[in-house]
Amino acid sequence: MAKITLSKLRHSYYPNPKTPDDYALKEIDLDWTDGGAYALLGPSGCGKSTLLNIISGLLVPSEGRILFDGQDVTELPPDKRNIAQVFQFPVIYDTMTVYDNLAFPLRNRGRDEATVRERVTAIAEMLELSDLLNRKAAHLSPDNKQKISMGRGLVRQDVNVVMFDEPLTVIDPHLKWKLRSKLKELHQRVRATMIYVTHDQTEALTFADQVVVMQEGEVVQIGTPVELFDRPAHTFVGHFIGSPGMNILPAEVSGGVAHFAGQAIPLEGPITAAPGARTEIGIRPEFVSLGLSGLPATVTKVSDVGRHTVVECEVAGSRVNAIVTGSGPEKGAMVQLEFRRDQTRLYADGWLASEAAEGAA
């Protein structure tokens, strides 16, 4: 496996890009350590697949370098990078048995049959395919076909990185959780460097130790699932991660104090926003409560989602979600909203612009 370094990477599909908007990927600098589990997360069109294609060698970047364990591979084709890829749609040979599908990458590299048998048996056991090894792949269920595709990527022990490009897209929703759990288990057992591309936050946060969140070709935050939820560095991260996402509310700042709906809102710590920036308050619904004092609000919707209730309110023309236990108030009720101070943050032009109080996480 390999440590992967992206250095000053930018890419444009235009021959002569002139402005930042001409770039599908803005400048990216990051390191992925050997044996780590990583996810590229973001909406369609944010640059995830472009970045994956650059790492795999299908695209040569307009600028910057890609290094595997310090070796520059920027100009190397895919077959020289020693990588494995698992795609949205299973890439398998229907006329072959499951065993022969799993064995193919090893046989193609001239491995002896004893080694082939050992690796195929081990991977089949991990993927719960042992009972299907002698079956033709053609008539297997989509989830088992995707397991074979995963196995073909994992069966080799000499790959630098295994990359997954939206691998659960065609899997029935009730089976996705099983494959997500299985993939996490596989990583813990084989400790291969894995990069998982998805627009689904559940898939990314379940699988990855570190998540790279992308928006419009830019990396807006890199962190653990807990870090992304607890302290979003950008309003996009706050809104994109969580269900429902972070409340983003218009704010005015004067005298070092943030105001929303005509009231001063206590923040987690001092404000670092530059004068003239567009300022917003961000707080997750989990930290908004219905109290005896606070912001006057009108309940516009109440949704019982099983584990808790989402109460949607209107405050001065802005929507504020609160997550509460129990049934919640009736639609149309007047309530007062309280924000937990250490979880109430200020953002300037989208970026975090308040400091955590001393001793806070």
Provide structural commentary:
This protein has 361 residues and is an alpha+beta fold. It folds into two domains: 4-230, Rossmann fold, CATH 3.40.50; 235-352, OB fold (Dihydrolipoamide Acetyltransferase, E2P). It is built from eight helices and 21 strands. The strands form five sheets. The chain has a six-stranded mixed beta sheet with strand order 6-7-8-3-9-10, with helices on both faces. It has a four-stranded antiparallel beta sheet with strand order 2-1-4-5, covered by helices on one side. The chain has a four-stranded antiparallel beta sheet with strand order 11-15-20-21. Helix 2 crosses helix 3. It is globular, with a radius of gyration of 24 Å. The two termini are 33 Å apart. The mean pLDDT is 91. Keywords: ATP-binding, Cell membrane, Membrane, Nucleotide-binding, Transport.
SSE order: EEEHEEEHHHEHEHEEHHEEEEEEEEEEE
Q: Helix count? A: 8
Percent helix, as a range, is 10-25%
Determine Rg (CA atoms, Å).
24 Å
Q: Strands of the largest sheet, in order across it?
A: 6-7-8-3-9-10
The CATH homologous superfamily of the largest domain: P-loop containing nucleotide triphosphate hydrolases
Mean pLDDT: 91
At CATH level 2, the architecture of the largest domain is 3-Layer(aba) Sandwich
**Global shape:** globular
Q: What structural class should be given to the helix and strand makeup?
A: alpha+beta
Domain count: the total is: 2
Strand content: 25-35%
Biggest sheet architecture? 6 strands, mixed
